[in-house]
Amino acid sequence: DGGITQSPKYLFRKEGQNVTLSCEQNLNHDAMYWYRQDPGQGLRLIYYSQIVNDFQKGDIAEGYSVSREKKESFPLTVTSAQKNPTAFYLCASSIGASNTGELFFGEGSRLTVL
Amino acid sequence: AQTVTQSQPEMSVQEAETVTLSCTYDTSENNYYLFWYKQPPSRQMILVIRQEAYKQQNATENRFSVNFQKAAKSFSLKISDSQLGDTAMYFCAFMRGNSGGYQKVTFGTGTKLQVIP
Q1: 10-residue averages of pLDDT along chain A (114 residues)
Q2: What span, in angstroms and rounded, lies between the C-alpha atoms of A20 and A107?
């Protein structure tokens, strides 16, 4: 089945530690995205990538980093510089930048900082 | 900048009844897309319905339909014959029409819908 796989589903981190969330897709989509979801705030864009080896900051990129070395993979690192990292993180993909907007989502990763 | 407003944080509906979720948006664009996404308790978000702004006819997908009022910048979602599986968070979203390159999708804050047996 084609889709987006995020791992881990739940993750606990101590303050000061970096953590990497995995996102893999087998939909052959060019574009991939990371969103942060907090109660009452909807989805906010962290980073996006339109093509391999290229990515751009979204609205709330501070304290996060990404890479796009393969078309299928778009990992997100939550660094110790992120002031409030406890949140639900969603990875998404779309056919390409030039599309009609449909996003395909993974099941999400919940990060809790202890 | 575009904004999307969902003024109903939570709603409930009896099974088999009809419910309407509200969404308003603000834009100066004439060419854009509007979406409703559903996020069930299992968390994988899926697209429910999409509307192109240049189309006057309201989009329909089975029990889901929209009331698109372009002048009023309103985009409500009607769910007919509500089912238990419709229990989810619903997000309204906006995207500018493609003029080349990346177009950001802006999401509302969501409406949590509970279908009551």
Answers
A1: 90 92 95 93 92 93 97 96 92 79 92 91
A2: 16
